[in-house]
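Much of the work behind modern protein science is quiet bookkeeping, done one molecule at a time. Below is the pair of lines this work produces for a single protein:

***
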Amino acid sequence: IEYMAQAIATWAGCRALAKNESIKIGFLLGTRKYECVNEYFGIGQRLVIHANCELFAENGLGMFSCKILDGDAEIATASLSVYEPPNASDFLTGNPS
């Protein structure tokens, strides 16, 4: 799940830079339907992570369909919910933006 979340963070960072915006902190809210055929990923195993944006609303809520591949084999899938607040420090302290 962490690999999937990091792929989403990369997407968000690239998206911000392409719009000439600063990169914001985002939060993983939850995961649904996580399935993995492996008990663990091996040291040195070469993985490819895909994160497809299904929804990203103006309020910062997003939903991504993710998968992890080992070569051509799909070895893990999940749906991740994320949140990119306008002001992360306000969000963390409970202050309204």
